[in-house]
Design a protein that fits this description.
single chain; 414 residues; FAD/NAD(P)-binding domain; 24% helix
């Protein structure tokens, strides 16, 4: 570690520490979700001075509906560390938590917070207000008024800012329309009429949870029939043949699943091919344990909302087939669209220097952006490296690749 890097022993607890303007570290990681925590673990193992900013697992803890279960299998729900010691199974053993499948949201959140505690005093929960260039370094300004400089910045801020909301609902008040990633809880809507828009995991699982909490739910989906993941489970139980067709990450159908597992290979494909792989691997679908829970939920497929009006304290939905619905709330399970301009902490000047692909940063090896020293991991890197980066299981590749690159190209600040 370079002599001008902050040592862990000099760091006060996150709630009391203020980093002065003259302080420097090797890498500042913005975001304390799975990608940020995993990146910090790998970078720290390389001897780099790392600081992580954010509330640990905040998006998962506050923006997901209570009672949610992880779509990913247990093996693909580990947050990667360099020696595979901080696994989900290790957390369960240490905490006395009984292993279950699928993994409950509350277990995963607790696991992530446990993972963070194992990293030592590298976390600062102060919100990052702005990141800007300071000659060859980055100046990071915090909301408490303090600033510091870092040689590199890794953006691992997740997808919370990227909620995709169809224009038909843009004029409605937030009290009547919300996104699945905005933290509305099922119990709030007991006895209410709720229209859930979408056909992916977030939409279908939310529909099940809201129905089970006592809401009158209708799912409205554009696709002609709902899709379910893993309905042909026998394909995963054919020994070596199954391992040839499917990777442990379990993303995408047979064949595609194996390709997705090699982000370095995907990186070299032409962009139109990469987009097709990503679209096919993560098309709207629900887990195989959802159909039974949706048995008494009204499902309308092959239709979409053409118009949404406010009528008193209700929402009137006009569908493409001309039919209408009156509901108390609309829940959008419409996914997200990456647009790094929505990261409010990126200064305008810095943002203008980042080469983009329709909102995605155009990253190359080491997840480098066009701004030297600025890296993006997680979903923003998925357009270049493939859909593995959209899932927790992608932390294994992302963090190792990131840390190896930074360690090899490390230079001292003069």
């Amino acid at each position: 570690m370079t002599t001008d890097t902050i040592r862990d022993s000099e760091v006060a607890p996150p709630t009391t520490r203020r980093i002065t303007k003259l302080a420097e570290c090797d890498v500042a990681v913005i975001g304390a979700g799975p990608y940020g925590l995993s990146a910090a673990a790998h970078l720290k193992a390389k001897g780099l001075g790392v600081r992580v900013f954010g509330k640990p697992m905040e998006f998962w803890a506050t923006k997901m509906p209570q009672g949610m279960l992880l779509r990913s299998p247990r093996e693909a729900s580990n947050i990667a560390d360099p020696v595979s010691a901080l696994t989900l199974e290790a957390y369960e053993s240490a905490s006395g938590t009984a292993p279950t499948a699928p993994v409950p949201l509350e277990t995963f959140v607790a696991y992530g917070k446990w993972f963070q505690r194992q990293l030592g005093p590298v976390l600062d929960t102060t919100t990052v207000a702005e990141v800007r260039r300071d000659n060859s370094l980055f100046e990071v300004a915090l909301q408490d008024g303090s600033t510091f400089r870092s040689r590199r910045v890794v953006v691992a801020a997740g997808v919370g800012q990227f909620c995709k909301k169809p224009s038909a609902f843009a004029h409605l008040p937030a009290a009547l329309v919300s996104h699945c990633y905005e933290g509305r809880q099922p119990g709030e809507f007991a006895g209410k009429r709720v229209a859930v828009i979408g056909a992916g995991q977030s939409a279908l699982e939310s529909a099940a949870l809201f129905h089970e909490a006592g809401a009158e739910v209708e799912v409205i989906a554009l696709i002609e029939s709902l899709r379910w993941i893993g309905m042909h489970s026998w394909l995963h139980h054919m020994g070596p043949l199954s391992r040839m067709l499917y990777s442990k990450h379990d993303i995408g159908p047979l064949g595609i699943s194996r390709l997705v597992a090699y982000p370095r290979l995907v990186f070299h494909f032409p962009l139109p091919i990469k987009d097709k792989i990503r679209t096919r691997a993560v098309r709207p679908a629900g887990s195989r344990w959802l159909p039974a829970r949706l048995g008494s939920v009204k499902i309308t497929t092959g239709n979409s909302v053409r118009k949404a009006d406010l009528v008193g304290d209700e929402v009137r939905l006009t569908l493409q087939d001309g039919s209408e619905r009156r509901v108390d709330h609309v829940l959008l399970g419409t996914g997200y669209r990456v647009d790094i301009s929505k990261y409010s902490f990126l200064s305008r000047d810095l943002l203008s220097q980042i080469d983009q692909l329709n909102g995605y940063p155009n990253v190359t090896s080491g997840f480098r952006s066009s701004v030297p020293g600025l890296h993006f991991v997680g979903a923003p890197a998925a357009r270049n490296f493939g859909p593995l980066l959209q899932f927790v299981t992608g932390t294994e590749f992302a963090s190792r690749h990131l840390a190896d690159h930074i360690a090899k190209s490390r230079v001292s600040v003069s």
